Amino acid sequence: MNAVATQTPDALQVRLEELSLDQLEHVLAIETQAYEFPWSRGNFTDSLSSGYAVHLLCAGEQVLGYYVAMRGVDEAHLLNLTVAPQFQRQGWARILLDALVLWARSQAAQWLWLEVRVSNARAIALYQAFGFHRVGERPRYYPAAGGAREDAVVMSLSL
After folding, report:
1. Which CATH number do you get for residue 43?
2. Is residue 1 classed as helix, strand or coil in its secondary structure?
3. Domain for residue 150, yes or no?
């Protein structure tokens, strides 16, 4: 009987790093693949120049996802959390949320806030499973097809 040797691939080295301008094209590509109404280059560069936390989750040279968050007094606000479409439903969003919570706590935040489209049931379920609570809605918060506007669900997490 002949045995075929199989090699175990190297463990996936996943890391969190701050967004640099040379990685912005990768992030913009993910953003446009993931959303009908993506953030613009200006949204990201404004976030960087404002000192917001813009962290990437990377494996090798591949960007798996990212988050953008801003610090406030005793709170942090998640502005954008995106996983590249080809890596969705693999647990990366939860890892990004864990990293976000660690960052927020390091900023002495006691609360974490976010808005999510009312139509984004997958994201709402993820946030609820993570411990966020629905606290209200913002009418006509997001752009929608045909010039319409979509409401946002406001959620918070006690840290």
Report:
1. 3.40.630.30
2. coil
3. yes
Instruction: Pick the catalytic residue from 31, 52, 66, 115.
Output: 115
Q: Quick check: 97 pLDDT over 70?
A: yes
Residue 4 in domain: no
Q: How many domains does the chain have?
A: 1
Mean pLDDT of the chain: 92
59 within 8 A of 8, measured Cβ to Cβ: no
State the Cα–Cα distance between residues 67 and 102, nearest whole angstrom.
Answer: 13
Residue 6 lies in a domain: no
Annotated catalytic residue, options 52, 66, 67, 127: 127
Global pTM reads: 0.90
Domain of 77, in residue numbers? 14-158
Confidence of residue 61 (pLDDT cuts 50, 70, 90): confident
Does 127 qualify as catalytic in the annotation? Answer: yes
Nearest to 152 by CA among 112, 130, 120: 120
Q: Is 115 a catalytic residue?
A: yes
Q: Is residue 121 part of a domain?
A: yes
Tell me what percent of the residues of the chain surpass a pLDDT of 70.
92
| Best CA proximity match to 116, nearest among 127, 129, 103 | 127
